[in-house]
Amino acid sequence: MYFKKITLLFFLIFATLGYSQTLSLKEAIKTGLENYGSIRAKNNYTNASRETLKQSKRDYLPNLNLSAQQDYGTINGQNGALYGFNGLGTASSGPALPDQNWNSAFGALYLVNMNWDFFTFGKAKEKINLAKMDVQTKETDLKQEMFQQEIRISAAYLNLLASQRLLISQQKNLSRAEVFKRTAAARVKNGLLAGVDSTLATAEVSKAKIALNLARNFVKEQNNKLVDLMGVAPQDFAVDTLFVNNVPKALLVAEKTTDSLHPLLQLYKARMDYSNQQAKLYKHFYYPTMTAFGVLQTRASGFQSDYITDQTAFTRNYWDGVNPDRTNYLVGIGISWNLTTPFRMSKQVSAQKFVSQALQEEYNQADRELKSQMNFADDKIKITLDNYAEAPIQVDAAKKAYLQKSTLYKNGLTDLTDLTQIMYTLNRAEIDRDITNNNVWQSYLLKVAATGNFDLFINEF
User: Fold this and answer.
1) Do residues 28 and 157 touch, judged by C-beta distance below 8 A?
2) Could you tell me which of 262, 147, 163, 161 has the C-alpha nearest to residue 212?
3) pTM of the entire structure?
4) CATH topology of domain 2-35+120-288+337-454
5) I want to staple 414 with a disulfide (CB 3.0 to 4.6 A). Which of 249, 334, 408, 459 is the partner?
6) Distance separating alpha carbons of residues 6 and 38, to the nearest angstrom
7) What band does 196 get if pLDDT is binned at 50, 70 and 90?
């Protein structure tokens, strides 16, 4: 009979609040991992780093350039030195005649150029390795964010569950207050009690209604937090309530240890590896680069070969000017080495080493904090388990006291003040039970967060 009443009470409360569906923890986590903005963003960052890795591998391919140009202009030449500063200048070539003339014709240049840094003393390889480290860093960052999101959603889910159970306790408290308001009113009407009892009973009903409204507001706050973490449209959820009446099974068996590194420590380690790889790449810039190159060039001109002696030996015909008639090729191997680069890059290498040391200190600090959190979680689990064992005793005793006081009140053997006090005690005991049961799971979640293995928690469901 009692179970049926509680079931009916759940139904009425959920119908009143307009819950659209029952949400399991696994569904909440799955939805949150799919929809949450930071996870979607970091997933895109990871995909971008993978594409960058592919691009870094393709950087080793040789450069192959095709070029074609067709021009129209004069070819007056002049003896003298010239430097094409910033590419400003023309490549017109012709005889150095005593006077300026405006003879002009078409000309063309067709060019195929290939150059390939075929041996870079490890620079190309280390660039690829750096891109791989970047992918690894982005992947571990995504994994860490997903782990944290799983913890956040689980905590919000437990908070919503606790708020809904508190709402039920406050609803039961209001029901008790209304019952005794009616009892007191009837007895006052029949002259069996003073009128003040009816007034006090009315005050207790109002107090219970205020507490119920505060509980409803608390439910909405916790529900909205869960909605935000899931990345879904605003809606009201009814959460699973069965598991919270038991303790996590993992607490009843021998503790399992995990050899895997915490996702947060994995992230710091990946960042250290990336920093060390950067320093390694910078060192390879100390060395020269060997390049193979080849050029195939074809030229055309409307000026004839005897133009130097006969300034009429040219044509303004377009086709004659752009039809190629001279070709040259060139192949070779070169080496380039900026001898001052090692002096500059040495400071960049030392700076990167300091970055690696800083990341190592952050890793050590995070490791200490996780160990401290683990120790705190173990102590908290012990305390919450003790409270979990005591809570039913408190509720049972409060129920018996409430039954005794209510019977005495109905028979005129005690006053409403004593009954009100015991009603408060029963209400407080029920709330303590709801909070204590939930705290067992919250403390276990805290330990899982310090362990870094979320499977230990989700496998309980």
Assistant:
1) yes
2) 163
3) 0.79
4) Outer membrane efflux proteins (OEP) (1.20.1600)
5) 408
6) 40
7) low
